[in-house]
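Quick entry, no commentary yet.
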Amino acid sequence: MPSSGFIERRSNKILILGVLLVLSQIAAIMLLTSAPAEALLGETIYGLRSAFHGLLAGVLMVTMTIGLFQAFRLWTGESVSIGDLETGSVLNAAICFVTIVLGNWLYIPYRAKGGPRTYFLENSPEVHKIFFEFKEFTALFTLPLAVAAAFIICLYGNRIQSNRILRETTALLLLLAFFYFLVAFGLGAAVTKLKPV
């Protein structure tokens, strides 16, 4: 094959992270200078909690989707970078933990007298039972599944590639974590639209 004169090099991770940081700062500045804070956070005192929970849920959507892609690659036996898989799975589990902690912190005003729970129980109890209670318990499944996948990946490392049982178990854990997250994410968005905290 004739040489084209280009030398292929590996990407510089520091450079990529730096570019992402600069782009994130530009986006934050544009957002904060162009939209009033009350429009971003809502009218209640719990707006900041909700904003952080929603932000982390959005980030978790990205990491869970990457985990789903890696699960597919593991399931089909494709070669994967174990270092990337370890980093991604640990990050996924950590973001999942923080998102759940913030969600539980939001649950306090949800259940408070006069909060959305009171409203739903009086006007539409099925929304409370399905959209919120079911969502909360479903969301809690994501953490042990994500932690178990990260544990297996970090413990067995490169041996996962050659062991079908480890590969498929890890893939299944990542798939189930994505499924439970997706259900909780969808129901959470729906209940927030119906009656925000």
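second:
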Amino acid sequence: MELTPRIIRNIVAALKRTQPNEIDCGDCFDRLERFAEMTLAGKAAGKALPLVQLHLEGCRDCGEEFEALLDVLRGLGGQEKTRSITAT
């Protein structure tokens, strides 16, 4: 792999974002449902779970998992509304 200026800039940017108390993908995944539910509820998830927010900003894979989880939860919310309408 050739270290192009773009790759070097990305590495430096990632290093600047590192924190001594970062979480890994497993820890992020464990907290992702709560983070997503808070996000959908309009709460400040990033302030409540800043380490999750930091990880999502720097990890493409976890960011994609988060977006997929949001989509699923939005879909389930729509189904719950439909069920309650038909139940009345």
